[in-house]
Amino acid sequence: MLDRWYGEVTRLMLDSAGIRPGQRILDIAAGAGEPAISAAERVGPDGYVLATDLSEGIVALAQEEAHGRGLRQVHTRVMDGERLDLPDATFDAVICRLGLMYMPHPLDALREWRRVLSADGRVALVVFSTPDRNDWGAVPAAIIRRHAGLAAPVPGQPGPFSLGAPGRLDALLREAGFEFPVVRAVPVPHRATRAEQFVQVAREAFGGLNAMMAHLPEAAQRAAWDEIALDMRRFESASGFEVGGECLLASASK
Q1: N or C: which terminus of the chain has fewer CB atoms within 10 Å of its end residue's CB?
Q2: Dihedral of the CA atoms 194, 200, 205, 209 (nearest 10)?
Q3: This prediction's pTM
Q4: Can you tell me the mean pLDDT for 22-31?
Q5: Which residues form a coiled coil (predicted)?
Q6: Contact 194/240 with Cβ under 8 angstroms?
Q7: Taking the domain 2-130+155-189+246-253, which CATH number applies?
Q8: Domain map (residue ranges) of the chain
């Protein structure tokens, strides 16, 4: 389901990174295999893809998935995207899909990414835009905040929409030293058969929503998810379920 929702913006990100056969690619906050696997298919057997993530378990899943597909050019390491244990100028491209906005110090992260790029290297990344363009996440988050007694996020606080404000990503890239940044909006509608299917995927895949109410008793968490499922039904129609989403795709040169 996640690949269906984010597959197109992932393809556009890899295009923006200019990934070609034989290149060396660094994937930050790689998750369980994408977009590292798609990058590996582009660089081919003579290329090299290093998929990194903070979670040892997630990194293991990525390695298993890649090797299950015979992609021996994929390697994995547990690593903090803000502090890369890697030499300078060793990668042709750095990619990051839906990871930078969760980092406490995104400017530090971008400077590190630039450091490990070769002289003509490129960075390409994807973040979510603003809450009003992303009902898939904003609607559940508002319900959870009410159930959990949480205040609205402070501007700049790490979270799904922390880098979505107009001009924010462009400014960060320039301050980090990148040249010729380009940022554009990409629609990412979240489709499912019914609202209940979407909510089930959200419960399993969107860890941030669960983390917001981790301190609540199990019964209270169930009540919040039940309300979310009920409210999300307004996005159902005769053709199925569709709730709006929008990403920002950014790319730049070293």
Answers
A1: N
A2: 100
A3: 0.94
A4: 97
A5: none
A6: yes
A7: 3.40.50.150
A8: 2-130+155-189+246-253
